[in-house]
Every structure is written in structure tokens, then in C-alpha cells.
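Hi V.,

You were right to ask for the full record rather than a summary. Here it is.
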Amino acid sequence: MKAIPVHPTRRRLLGGLLPAGLLLGAGGVAAAADSRAGVVYHLSDSARATGAIRNLENHRAADDGIEIAVVALAGGVDFLRSGAKDDNGNDYSALVEALSFKDIRFLACGNTLEALDIDPADLHFGVEVVASGVAEIARLQNERGFAYIRP
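Predicted structure:
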């Protein structure tokens, strides 16, 4: 039987698929990253916070085992500040704290806090500060295999 020539670009592509195929055979791509599924919500505008909180509540109710992180940066950190209220005058504090107790992590961008001169002590209970919001989103996606949601 005569061998069919393969273009070098296709050979590289096919060669790259072999390791991916081995990973899939060993339990999927998730096995290569982190064995626990996760999702990162990206919030850069607090005007979307109320809708995002509804999404988070629904997501947690539908999948109690998934790891959920909310990364807030730029204008998205405003709803994480003590005393922040939604358009109806409801305090975000109770909502954020209730979701924190359901193992949803809230992460505020340290670069944003510094740029806006916000003291981390002014954030709701349980909010963590990360050096860079965008770097944390990238890390969760690349190193942990988290899915990305931008409500």
C-alpha cells in the first residue's frame, strides 16, 4: 500500500491532536487542568451586579458541586463596597455574604482598588483581593480550566 503524502502543516496539526486525544482518553481535558469543574464570572460594571447575583444564585442551585468565582474589576468593584445599594435601595452586603456562605468566592482587583483609592477594609465581609483582576481571570481559565461567563 502506497503512503499518502501529508502536508507539513497538517502533520503538525495532527501531531498536536495526538496528545489531546490521549488526554481525552484519560478522562477529558478537565483531567489535565483541575479535576473539579469551575466557572469564573467577570464583572467590570456594577450596573450588572443585580443580574449577576441572580445568575449566581441560579447557578449554585442548579450545580452545588461547581466551584464559582466572581472577579470584579474597574466599575465592577463598586457593588462589593460596604454600603453599596442596588437601584431599588437594597444593600448588596447581605446578598454577597449569603453567596459567600454558599462557597461562591468574590475577588476584587487590587489594581482597581489602588487606582480608585479604595481601602480593602471597605469591602464586604469575605471579599478577597487579588493583585490583578484580568490576570486572575486568565489564571483560573488557563491553570484551573474554569469556564468564563460575563453577565
